[in-house]
């Protein structure tokens, strides 16, 4: 019995398929077979018309599948999918065709349909970087995250976005600042004005001022965007903005031993105790890890909240 494809059709309505270059194409082949049991091959290509060829095959799109055809004395309707025809090598445009051919059978029948496929470019991948982050507090600036900001300062966030694209882009920014209790103290968002940032260049975004009036950790969530019509995140920073320490103050000391809690900024003991240097006889801090009192020397770092035991020669006020 002669093995032959009696008819060959595909489910591809003309002018109905649009695919991106970063996608693949599936062709369903419907055919009628009559003959002995045999293994055959189905192969498909994306094609384009030329002056010479109606179905000029694009080699990079070729996809082949094997199919085991059952014995059939009368024509039998079958269907086989040819999946994953790659489109990466196909130029973005309309009016591509599809060609399907049967191999290993008599006559190698084929079927084709012109102007059935449109290929489009994949969405543009926007690229940018948060290149610099600074917190301005009163007359001081520091790179985010900033440590040991004295309580009571006024904060001002500066964020720089860099355009990592080959052409000028309009960049946008959004951030939320929260205090140590999780309360929002600033929400800011903006798109840069014309002229937009050129390739490899940066743009500075400056928010509004807010109070740093609570001791503890302030956080900030930042998003850098491109493409205002359909904004796309290109970089983010979620983390610490700054650590605020209790404002420096005063502690009244009496002659002899005094157990106190240090509430100043992080600094060396030599600097912190300048105001009582003439009266200070000896001082210790409590090491929580070792569970012991350790004598303080000039270079010892005093931290906010540290428990101290200080001996002075006369009544005095410790200002730090």
Order of helices and strands: EEEEEEEEEEEEEEEEEEEEEEHEEEEE
**Fold-level CATH name of the largest domain:** Coagulation Factor XIII, Chain A, domain 1
Measured as a percent range, the helix fraction is under 10%
Tell me the count of domains.
Answer: 3
CATH class type of the largest domain: Mainly Beta
Q: What is the fourth-level CATH superfamily of the largest domain?
A: abc- transporter (atp binding component) like domain
Radius of gyration: 37 Å
State the distance separating the first and last CA atoms.
Answer: 105 Å
- At CATH's second level, what is the architecture of the largest domain? Distorted Sandwich
Main sheet properties: 6 strands, mixed
Count the DSSP helices: 1
Low-confidence stretches: none
Mean pLDDT: 89
Which descriptor suits the 3D outline? elongated
In total, how many beta strands?
A: 27
Overview of this structure, please?
- There is one protein chain.
- The chain has 1 helix and 27 strands.
- The chain is mostly beta strands.
- It folds into 3 domains: 117 residues, Sandwich (Immunoglobulin-like), CATH 2.60.40.10; 118 residues, Distorted Sandwich (Coagulation Factor XIII, Chain A, domain 1), CATH 2.70.50; 70 residues, no CATH class.
- The protein starts with a strand and ends with a strand.
- 25% of the residues are buried.
């Amino acid at each position: 019995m002669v093995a032959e494809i009696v008819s060959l059709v595909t489910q591809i309505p003309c002018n109905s398929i649009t695919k991106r270059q970063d996608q693949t194409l599936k062709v369903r082949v419907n055919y009628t077979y009559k003959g002995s049991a045999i293994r055959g091959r189905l192969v498909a290509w994306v094609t384009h018309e030329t002056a010479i060829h109606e179905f000029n095959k694009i080699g990079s799109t070729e996809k082949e599948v094997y199919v085991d055809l059952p014995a059939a004395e009368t024509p039998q309707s079958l269907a086989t999918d040819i999946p994953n025809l790659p489109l990466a090598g196909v130029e973005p445009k309309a009016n591509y065709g599809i060609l399907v051919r049967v191999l290993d059978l008599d006559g190698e029948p084929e079927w084709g349909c012109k102007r059935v496929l449109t290929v489009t470019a994949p969405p543009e991948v926007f690229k940018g970087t948060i290149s610099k982050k600074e917190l301005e507090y009163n007359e001081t600036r520091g790179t985010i995250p900033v440590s040991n900001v004295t309580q009571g300062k006024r904060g001002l966030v500066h964020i720089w976005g860099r355009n990592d694209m080959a052409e000028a882009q309009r960049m946008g920014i959004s951030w939320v600042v929260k205090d140590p209790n999780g309360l929002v103290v600033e929400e800011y968002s903006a798109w840069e004005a014309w002229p937009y940032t050129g390739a490899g260049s940066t743009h500075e975004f400056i928010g509004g001022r807010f109070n740093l009036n609570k001791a503890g950790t302030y956080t900030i969530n930042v998003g850098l965007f491109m493409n205002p019509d359909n904004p796309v995140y290109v970089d983010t920073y979620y983390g610490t903005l700054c650590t605020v320490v209790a404002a420096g103050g005063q502690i009244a000391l009496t002659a002899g031993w005094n157990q106190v809690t240090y509430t100043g900024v992080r600094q060396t003991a030599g600097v912190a105790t300048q105001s009582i240097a003439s009266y200070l006889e000896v001082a210790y801090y409590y090491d929580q890890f070792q569970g012991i009192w350790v004598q303080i020397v000039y270079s010892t770092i005093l931290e906010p909240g540290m428990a101290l035991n200080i001996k002075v020669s006369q009544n005095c006020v410790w200002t730090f």
